[in-house]
Amino acid sequence: MVIIPEKKSSKQRNEIKPTGSSPKSLPPLDDILDPIVAFAELHPGAQTLALTARRNPYVPEGVYGIIDSYCTDVDCDCRVAYLSVVSMQMGQLAQLTFGWESESFYQDWMGDFDPLDDADASWNFHGLKLMDLAPQGSLAEPLLKMVGSMLSDKETVEFFKSRYFEFRAGLHQDA
Prior knowledge:
The chain is of the alpha+beta class. It has helices at about 10-15, 30, 40, 105-110, 140-150, 155-175; strands at about 1-5, 35-40, 45-55, 60-70, 80-85, 90-100, 125-130. Mean pLDDT is about 80; it is low at about 1-25.
């Protein structure tokens, strides 16, 4: 797991522009889901995880930041990290969700509520996947696999879990 210090504000990150023939930059996560906020917005100076691509036939070599965001609804306990994979050269490339709890946790948490009128909406929260309804860049699938490999490390999973609970504690202090 590589950790890089957070150096840019969320507004600066959202202004990253694609260059040359790079994939089109995607809209910021907070333009798609509300009320989802990046961890670094509540905790300025927080560290960010990074992926390094080397000798990958599907992803250009380089460093890709992973910006973790969380739900700001104080009554919600979804236990989901919303992950944006970004590149300084290409902008936002993939938008992922990572729910680390068991599938039964999400089924219990959802109860009878089904926002998509889907027989099994809990699959939207459990595990790592491309975010439904969010636009994805051309590198989204291979980046999803790279993040999945990173999440095979329990330390990385614990990183996101602890950030979730720290983020939630900050919300409850402000409420």
